[in-house]
Amino acid sequence: METIGFLLDGFDVAFTLQNITLALIGCFLGTVFGALPGLGPANGVAILIPISFSLGLDAASSMILLASVYYGAMYGGRISSILINIPGDEPALMTTLDGYPMTLKGRAGEALTLTGISSFFGAIVATIGLMFLAPQLVKIALLFGPAEYFALFVMAFATLGGVSSNNKAKTVLASVIGLAVSTIGVDGQTGVPRLSFGNVHFYDGIDFLIVIVGMFAVSEIFIFIENKNTETNKDQKNLIINKILPKLSTILKTVPAMIRSSLLGFFAGVLPGAGASLGSFIAYTFEKKISNKDDTFGKGDERGVAAPEAGNNAAAGGALVPMLSLGVPGSGTTAVLLAMLMTMNITPGPLLFKNNPDVVWGLIAALFFANFILLILNIPMVRIFTKILLLPPKFLMPIVAMISFVGIYGISGSSFDLLLMIFFGLLGWILRKLDIPLVPVIMGSILGNLMETNLRRALTISDGDWSYLFQSKVSIIIWLITIIGFILPLLIGGKIKSQMDKLKSKH
Amino acid sequence: MNERIFGVISFIIACGYIYVASLTQLSFISDPVGPKTFPYIIGSIFAVSSLFLIFKPEFNPQWPSLYKFLEIIFVTIILIVYAYSLPVVGFVISTLIATFILSWRLGAKVTEAIIFGAVISFGIYFLFRTILGLSLAKGIWGF
To answer: First-to-last CA distance in chain A?
Structure first.
């Protein structure tokens, strides 16, 4: 069992005082980011990357901090879903359906405990899955050459948004905006400045961290400014939780739901372009199909809160599989985590497992550890986070803004970078108003250079023959998946989307 | 601005992008693809997907009122001024003022916002500079 040996090495990496502290801080901050409506895992990780970079943390430690934030946000999202019927982040949407009715029945504490347990369950299943599946995928990935990698990157973009995205024109537009940003600067292969308008600031290219923080943190500030008066009043009496522990029989009743949802969620997460939102959606719909015999779903059924939470946490872990083993992210947050590794000059993919096993296994070990911390934070100590929910945006948003500025300024000490960040914030706001997704933009700016490098390497091998891209069996398979992944949502996406919208409009 | 107008703007940007990419000076060393091809591919897809927005718009965006719009512009200006004042007056003072204005615009009372600005500015300074040793903007007075 070499996996176990690697894992033990990983625990050696994770169990240093510094890394344990980082995991604790990450779990706490992550739960806060998840719990606060408007901020989610992607924002949280985005804000913290520049800071962990400026602090000079090594790759393993940064990854531990940020992955704890990622997992923490998946736990935290449920808190506001259950208590105030507003999802703390997108994947927690499904939890409102049965979580809020439970609160109305005075069972908020029980709902929080059940979802805490199911989050834990889902995340542990996913981390075990990650541990065994990622090394297998690495073996396949070792067969990949530049042509296959190029195809893989195209696939990542084509399948973005999963089956629920039916407006492909917008996803494509968003992707090319990001890719266009990545082409600015001196061309890595020939050394000529490109699209830099003769401006020295552009010669180094636009750091994708600036794009990420601008789009995910600064645009959020504009959204808050816009919505400041229309905000719904938070019902404060719901934030008082009485009974926390459900009966053992109640917990046992939800165990089958947790198992089913964790497995479903994990596979949804591994699939390209899916991510946690889809994981919780699939888990809830499936659980409703098989367990809703007495028509209790949507009225505060315990299984209805356990299923989506196990599903989204499992999917979050599953999404780490393609990111770590192939270097191809499937969701916004994993794209941001990938950006962090690239900032540290580490290219995820098969070589990561060979060259930096400490990062991979340290991360996996830390994820196990983080889950136990999160279980404690999210059940006995959940009241701390319900207090944080009371923090109004007028205080929250300036903090987000200032920390974004501190982070980006810390990297380069340049006001020009801050200006760019504000620009991307505004652009992000406009794109959001037009219902154009931001994740592809981010992914484009992160992956653009890798994509181009692989394309040019492939064509250098073939001496300019473009058919080389479609020659190997592996690349043909990837291109086929790409085409199916692109077209399928156009055929069935509308149906799923309208189903999701129907559930959304219920509150 | 509806989708159609945005499509037109983004189409123009796509064409501009292709044009600027075509101005790239070629160097004497080059691979078979060269530095222009990838931008050309990106630019073409950019232009085509913009055309989709022009000819098949299906979403009607809700824009904020003029007042809100001005407020967003105001906040943007504040953030820009903040970005440029950091290296001049330093982190503590510029952050105090920027935080004050932001929280005030988001609905805090003036006194509340001033106290909050001070707390955040000194708090971040203490946390990041004193404890974590991060380099913050120094400015002419050194803080």
So the answer is: 49
